[in-house]
Amino acid sequence: MAAHLEQSASDVFDLMLNSKLRKGTPQLFPAPECTAMVGLAGSIRGMFTVRCGGAAANQLAATMLRLPLERAAHYAADALGEIANMIAGNFKKQD
User: Model pTM?
Assistant: First the structure.
């Protein structure tokens, strides 16, 4: 199941952000500034969460919407939510 989730995230980042994900070393970070959650129902039930700092959320929005970084902050929450929704949907599709 973890491999499916990793593949889903990788596919979404590649398609929507033209960015390659790679595994890193787990690290402790201060509390995230942005969180998006998507509920899962059906054969897989739970809550899928994407968390990141504000700067990362702004960069996601800027990349997705092809906006200058200084204009992206207004769209950061929606962009992070859409990324979370696409990863969760892609993951559920593989089930």
Answer: 0.87
11: left (phi over 0), alpha (psi -120 to 50) or beta: alpha
More confident residue, 49 or 26: 49
Q: Which two tokens stand for residue 6?
A: 């990793």
Dihedral-angle region of residue 31 (phi above 0 means left; psi in -120 to 50 means alpha; beta otherwise): beta
Per-residue pLDDT tens for 52-70?
989 999 999 999 999 999 9
CA angle 2, 89, 80 (to 5 degrees): 90
Task: Name the CATH architecture for the domain at 2-23+30-94.
Answer: 3-Layer(aba) Sandwich (3.40)
